[in-house]
Write the structure tokens for this entry.
Amino acid sequence: MTETARGAVLQAFHEPVAIAAAPIPEPEPGALIARIELAGICGTDIHLSHGHLPIPLPVVLGHEAVGRVARLGPGVERDFTGQPLRVGDAITWTSSIPCGRCHWCVVEGERTLCEQRRVYGINQRFDVFPRLSGGWAEAIYLQPGSAVFKLPAGVTPEQVIALGCAGPTAYHGVVDITGVTPGRTVVVQGSGPVGLAAAMYAHLSGAAKVIVVGGPAARLELARQIGVGDVHLDIFTTTPEARLARVLAETPGGRGADVVLECAGVPAAVAEGIAFARRNGTMLVLGQYTDRGATPINPHLITKKQLTLHGSWAFGERHYLGHLNALPAMAARFDLARLIVRYPLAQVNQAMTDMAGGEVMKPVLTMT
Amino acid sequence: MTETARGAVLQAFHEPVAIAAAPIPEPEPGALIARIELAGICGTDIHLSHGHLPIPLPVVLGHEAVGRVARLGPGVERDFTGQPLRVGDAITWTSSIPCGRCHWCVVEGERTLCEQRRVYGINQRFDVFPRLSGGWAEAIYLQPGSAVFKLPAGVTPEQVIALGCAGPTAYHGVVDITGVTPGRTVVVQGSGPVGLAAAMYAHLSGAAKVIVVGGPAARLELARQIGVGDVHLDIFTTTPEARLARVLAETPGGRGADVVLECAGVPAAVAEGIAFARRNGTMLVLGQYTDRGATPINPHLITKKQLTLHGSWAFGERHYLGHLNALPAMAARFDLARLIVRYPLAQVNQAMTDMAGGEVMKPVLTMT
Amino acid sequence: MTETARGAVLQAFHEPVAIAAAPIPEPEPGALIARIELAGICGTDIHLSHGHLPIPLPVVLGHEAVGRVARLGPGVERDFTGQPLRVGDAITWTSSIPCGRCHWCVVEGERTLCEQRRVYGINQRFDVFPRLSGGWAEAIYLQPGSAVFKLPAGVTPEQVIALGCAGPTAYHGVVDITGVTPGRTVVVQGSGPVGLAAAMYAHLSGAAKVIVVGGPAARLELARQIGVGDVHLDIFTTTPEARLARVLAETPGGRGADVVLECAGVPAAVAEGIAFARRNGTMLVLGQYTDRGATPINPHLITKKQLTLHGSWAFGERHYLGHLNALPAMAARFDLARLIVRYPLAQVNQAMTDMAGGEVMKPVLTMT
Amino acid sequence: MTETARGAVLQAFHEPVAIAAAPIPEPEPGALIARIELAGICGTDIHLSHGHLPIPLPVVLGHEAVGRVARLGPGVERDFTGQPLRVGDAITWTSSIPCGRCHWCVVEGERTLCEQRRVYGINQRFDVFPRLSGGWAEAIYLQPGSAVFKLPAGVTPEQVIALGCAGPTAYHGVVDITGVTPGRTVVVQGSGPVGLAAAMYAHLSGAAKVIVVGGPAARLELARQIGVGDVHLDIFTTTPEARLARVLAETPGGRGADVVLECAGVPAAVAEGIAFARRNGTMLVLGQYTDRGATPINPHLITKKQLTLHGSWAFGERHYLGHLNALPAMAARFDLARLIVRYPLAQVNQAMTDMAGGEVMKPVLTMT
């Protein structure tokens, strides 16, 4: 008798996801089965459901999840870091499996840029083996090549899922590419999960002051309550001129921010971020995952201010592990669990609606 | 009896410069007098004469020059690098004297960003001592604190002036900030002096292929003749689509250029340059010295391509010396003297007209 | 009637310092007089008193101090960062005044390498105007060109003096040159002021684990009490083999530390530090200020482990300001005042003896 | 009837290699068979034959080779860069196949540090399928996962084999890790293949002056003849004091070299290289592949000079491709073919003897 698992399947764009079941396969060598405990809903999931990105259908959505080992395939004895892996262990995993053979994987060493990578919850069809390839499900089949990690000691599933993919995304952009150092004044644009994760990394890196420019008020208030950000500017109640004046007033010598971390996702934020930066400063353009077209930017400011702008795309195993290594300190400092609101799997469509409306910071599906 | 020197003085914006004379002062301690041999005309001089930048008047223009030591002030015995300095030695000097005390000079170590710096030929008045403070003159009074350099062995005044300030500007942006390494494929946007200097530095740094995107045809032809650029695309006879297709076809795997060096000065070039760059590539925004306002740029491409964009502003002594150190190899490889057209000082207005019209690459004033 | 100030003067090597008085001069333009409140004793002072470094005598020792503005010279209205400066303000200052004109100051932008710099408490003679040029005195004459800083809001003189010059030295080496990022495992060799400051910067930069290898036990205990270090290994009670085994056991995958910060000052520590580092790791050689000669090092390990080793020498204004910017967060996290033991100026020789014996972490002279 | 190929097999340490034959297998999917044209002998081969490194026996030696495609396995249609691959095409390949799954491959992105990599000519047994796994043979079986490259247009097999593995090794250390920029003064320690390749990369990167410190005289003379190095110092006819004095005299301001590239392989060279470097300079420790034990090094100089030392280990596909991209320019500038001396396969032992004796720069085996 085969056991089955239920999952939330996107069958057509612009339609609600549907709960469907599939048999849990026996894991092949190198694979394993995880029981999902918590699965995050990410802004990208909303875009996916509207067909903003070219993905195959049907698909079990969900690229952020924490679970427990249910069955280990032959040869699977350790997690990616070499820790022994046993049934029942709490685990998480990177959402992508890069090909490991292309120019990006081998020559550039940028596995996040691999164009053939398989992504759980995004490009793995529900009607093709092993079917259970998304996080919004009771179980997931983790294919050989997946980077699976036991949760760091003392870190709870809630703390892992609270930031979801925003955590490693921010680690990649803020820690690995941009770099914030003790004493710096940092502006973070955006107060969604990526903005909050970026601001947390700025704090964790020793920033002297973190100015969060975002909104709406409830998100800024939540940030304030968990200790993220030293100054909070609400874009819904301030003018661009007032924000610029305030940022300059908050920076040493009124010169502007040492580092600007754009996590807003709105094209116009980039031009505003350039204005926030001091001469010889650095800006990260992290939030522009969706193509919303061109926006007016004055390149004279890049030359005159001698700025460096960095783009950063998603994350690879390096960043996922980096984030997990930093997570105990992050969890000790910020009450991450405050960010999440739980929904049973059956209420997934309600959770998506709440996410789309910005009413909750991080909706999380529970499977039990 | 006091000796005098003639110079080309900008007395009012939008009017021709006029030849006027001033006495050559006795140099104070730390200062020296140089007889100018060759003085370059730079695109910025045209902007200055039209009042596009806020400068005091009257001023002897000219921030690029080569001359010979005429008189040494007390205590001046060596050039900036420690070489003995004697009357008659061929010398050049940085155009700016940073204050040495401000945040940019002391903390950032970016003397090019000093806001109090004195600049020969730009912000030193002709009606204030020592009056002779510009390069378009028979003599210049080099104030204490000037970084004066004997010409490197084997380098002629023509080779120094041929690139003018474009040489150290390109050194700063291409060598010091961006970095081109052996085997790279590089696009240079712009075929004026800065573009040519940037392309030369790309060659000198070992680039496998340098693609020059510029115009008009005569400039590209001159570049070709002196060995600058491996591929030349004329913006006046090609469409943006054709240029992009050609650049991609010229790059490994059709992925785009490893490095894009924007030296065009036209805002729209930045968006085109972003399209030329490969994922994980680097772009230098060097040409946007004048504020020509905003241009549509799609920031999604910065995120998705994971680009790094660098601005670079002017140059400090570090870059001037770096350029002089590289000049012997550059002069050995490229026939720099081919870039210049000589005009006697009295024909300065004609020279400016020819520069503004793009008819000559580098007009140079001679004093004898 | 001229006011005088007393100071502790080193008149001959190997002899006790003597208390002597000198008149407090009227400050020239650009200068100011500070009343010293707290002056630190640094390990270097002990070396100086033994003639290990070539300095002129007599000299008022003391290159670490905090005081209050007593008199402002003409034109002195603001501190280095532009804050208004008034009599009575609590201030500190960089110990060195680089020349601002040499190769290191101008070209390299490394003012810490300036060979002509004047250093308070080290190379300014007591028998030459302005005489009061050391920190172990009731007053100091801060020459024009000094970088003077008001204490950051909320930071006490005790917190500034507790780390003394070790603070900006560690900032330079750890933050500016080496870089520690969230999630890293860091070994700090040395538990004196430089080692503690380095460990604090590692914590402040988000390190996941900081392993302090030092001694004697009292110093490690003090570190533990104020929250510096997660693991402490006493070199006096462990073998090198045991330390290496423990460090490897404490690092991810047993691969070794991501970053090793050598602050021990003993040449042999460098070879041990190389053993602690993982492949592709980074090591800072910060503690080797005194020339104690060569030590056996196996360079094969540098190649095979693909290590990067950085030296870092002293600090410039950039690092001093950087440290001050980071100090509020550092002071909030660690009880810095616990590090200091106070001595009245008259007991300076006792304080030096206690420092030399390693009995106190940071002896501090008080002037009242 | 199965075709066979002969190869030079190391069957026991300290004994001559023997010519033996094995059948050429039919290539599996992803594999291909190459006919070897030229195979280089590297100093490491001598070490291998003496058992200095723990390798399995028997083994066909040879990790540097150029050949032609003889048979393509199923699915092999393109080379690593995407060029179409056909029987008869001239090709080369990286000697190592990293595992692609370990910490070094995935997290660090340093495939050269992979501990499980298969290396042709080093750790692939002759008595295990596919047997023909070394370069010193008429044919080689290139396993799936090999990075195979068609020779760049205009580059001959002789030019590829002339530097052998020294080319990508130098690319890794000099270009990818250390960086030489136009105008720099560079010292290269060592005049074997790695030293010459490093010096070529210094030239190709625009160095103003390259000082080669090596020997014996014949090697320096060969370097001189092909244009490698501007100054040559023979370690067999100079004292360390004289070499240091000369290097300082050849550097700007007598400060020492901007960059020192150690490719000597003798431990003591590292201490000498540290002396050659200027303050704030950079040194590459590239030559210490073999563990020859500790050597006296004064770490005070690392701190005081504020040096950066980089180790660099072997190379990965990134560096091999980088080297191939740079090779056309390198081959156009230096007469690479002058470096090689040809030996028929049957004379392999003579070739090894000549290599060990330093009589030839690069012995190359021919198969026809």
